[in-house]
Amino acid sequence: MPAYLDTPTLIDLARRAEAAAPGPCACTKTPLDGWQSQPLSLDESQFREIGTLLLQDDQEPTFAEYLPGKTKYWSADAPIAPRYFPYNRCGVWECASCGRLYLRYTEGGGYFVDRRIRALNSALIEDVSL
Q1: DSSP-derived 3-state class of residue 9
Q2: How many other C-beta atoms can be found within 10 angstroms of the C-beta atom of residue 66?
């Protein structure tokens, strides 16, 4: 299992990746600033998992969301709160082509499974307690 990344480590990794790869990723034509269903055109082989936000000893991570004000789950400006859903179920992945970092998780519903992806933006990470 990938190593657990606490919030200060996540912020540090995100800032370093942003400094090394300023500007948007050209690896996908779909904007990934907010959560998106993973585009079919995204090349899986260009990503490597570098860590997880899922605590190993957490038997049942919360489904509570942290969406202050009028932010929505799909919004590009929605905060990234690692202790809240869906972030508490995410892997942190690095694009081998551009070095940018992405959050990925699998949303499971009654009749579907949807792989979702969002670009990691250090300015949106909030260390908020449950």
Answers
A1: helix
A2: 18
